[in-house]
Amino acid sequence: MRYLGIDTAKRISKIGLGTWQFGSSEWGYGNGYAEREAPAIVIRALELGVTLFDTAEIYGFGSSERILGEALDGSLDSVFLTTKIMPVVPVAPVVEQRAVASANRLGVHRLDMYQVHQPNPLVHDRTIMRGMRALQRIGLIDEVGVSNYPLARWRAAEDALGSRVLSNQVGYSLVARSAERDLLPFAESHNRVLIASSPLAHGLLAGRYHGTSRPANPARATNPFFHPENLERAEELIAVLREVGDAHSATPAQVALAWVIHHPAVAAIPGASSVEQLESNVAAAEIELADDEHQALSTASARYRPIDEPVSLARRKLTSLKHWGKTLKYWTNTMWHDYRLEHVQSSDARNGK
Ligand SMILES: NC(=O)c1ccc[n+]([C@@H]2O[C@H](COP(=O)([O-])OP(=O)(O)OC[C@H]3O[C@@H](n4cnc5c(N)ncnc54)[C@H](OP(=O)(O)O)[C@@H]3O)[C@@H](O)[C@H]2O)c1
Fold first, then answer.
1. 160: closest CA among 173, 147, 171, 144?
2. Which ligand 1 atom sits nearest the alpha carbon of residue 173?
3. Can you give the pTM of this predicted structure?
């Protein structure tokens, strides 16, 4: 495994583990995955030197945090454990309460990093960072991170916190490269980290899906990456991934990850549906792409032009409204699950039900 060259209390592996899949119905991997495969993935990741583990309070309404925490089982010495708050009501007391709830689900006394899952369009970061500062002061969290933040808000968040906001977690892959515009140059010049989410474009870049074999789970069924026309348009890029992979005895997914982490400020957090995928993803950290290979991949990626339906301003606003509506539903569901676990199930247990 390779690690980021940055001054953090614990090392951050260039390949981490994303755990949105754990206990989340959107991925449709089922109970067997949540109960057996997911914990096995975590244990194998630890054995292979992965230190960066990423989760969020809304993944599976808190299930992802619980599964991850149980599998880590207190082996935290080398782990850089990070979760995310959904900033629905980001006032300080709520931020503090959500951090405690996440730490409880994870079974830890301290989070190595606490991230804001997405910018709140209505509330300035001064509000949420007041809560983050309090959490740092009492030692419940070490670093603060953000996610899906444009550069101006990342910097505003730092000003509001009064110290570094270590990382920004954004979609970054061969088919999602907008971070190269300003986030990556900022991260590199200021010793910050870009955590690449969806580095395999939800699995597209593994090259297993095509027009007649498309993923059916809700996380991907309506995703434009898997639109039949876009799958066809991605074929040329996947052919280059295979070609480069042949020279390294590597799979397209491994080459796609090697391309993402080629940048010194990037750590990637691929999700995995099996232990074999995790092992393969970890092995990608050892692939050193030659300059001409990196260039060939970048060029093929720039040639990939997915169909993009023109969207009116009204439609964009409606989509954003729907997104926040769904987020609110997930957030309240997460709290409801906590409440049931703490009060209903424990009172059932007391009454011998
Ligand atoms: N901050 C945010 O807003 C945000 C958004 C999205 C994701 N994330 C984080 O980023 C993590 C990763 O993103 P993601 O899960 O969306 O997408 P991803 O990592 O790009 O893709 C994961 C999927 O790709 C397939 N895959 C993984 N390794 C493979 C391999 N070696 N060979 C073939 N297929 C492989 C698996 O699906 P199949 O086997 O079923 O094909 C797996 O579930 C998440 O778990 C989450 O922690 C954060």
1. 144
2. 20
3. 0.93
